Amino acid sequence: MSFSDPYQAYVEGSLFGGNPIGLVIALYEGTVEAIRAARNCLISGDILGRSRAINKGIKILTELLIALDHEAGGEISANLKRIYSYLQCRLLDAHVQKAEEPLNEAERLLNTILEGWHAAAGKVATETYQARTAKSYPEGITSEHETTAGYGLSEVAREFTGVSAVF
């Protein structure tokens, strides 16, 4: 980890200390960013920049390929392997052909899969929150008693004190 650049140290700490889904999302977003940079370089005629951006995208996809667990992932893992390999080929096609369409296709595919990862992250976050809040309430109290702006607290107060209160 590099501590000479505080921003870079924060980013690295966030990625390496975060959850696995967050890391996968960051890798997908990095690939999309590399594709966009390659497209911009293609349009502007920056051959070296295009080459660097495409190489970056291919390297990230390689990391995603290496990270696949084929034993635990089964069919999903096999499908992702085929998709990542296909995306690498499309990035190479874009570079060799000096064509924008393979970049557009790769970005569309990645964004579609990325939507699924965002949904999975949201579901995990919701389930984690529910599990944590269910454990933090006293016995007999659930998150149903807690509502926005404190409404519903008067019912809780009545249950435990026998006093009617308006909050």
In short:
This protein has 167 residues and is mainly α. The chain has helices at 6-17, 20-44, 47-67, 70-97, 101-136, 153-161. It folds into two domains: 6-136, Up-down Bundle (Four Helix Bundle (Hemerythrin (Met), subunit A)), CATH 1.20.120.340; 140-167, no CATH class.
How would a textbook summarize the main sheet? none
Number of strands: 0
CATH superfamily placement of the largest domain? Flagellar protein FliS
Model regions low in confidence, pLDDT < 50 over at least 5 residues: 145-167
Number of domains: 2
Choose one word for the global shape: elongated
Mean of all residue-level pLDDT scores: 79
Structural classification: mainly alpha
Q: Determine the CATH topology of the largest domain.
A: Four Helix Bundle (Hemerythrin (Met), subunit A)
The gyration radius over C-alpha positions equals 24 Å
Range of strand content: under 5%
Classified by CATH, the class of the largest domain is Mainly Alpha
Helix proportion range: over 70%
The number of helical runs is 6
Q: Output the helix-strand order.
A: HHHHHH
Distance between the termini: 49 Å
Keywords:
167 residues, mainly alpha, Four Helix Bundle (Hemerythrin (Met), subunit A), 2 domains, 78% helix, 6 helices
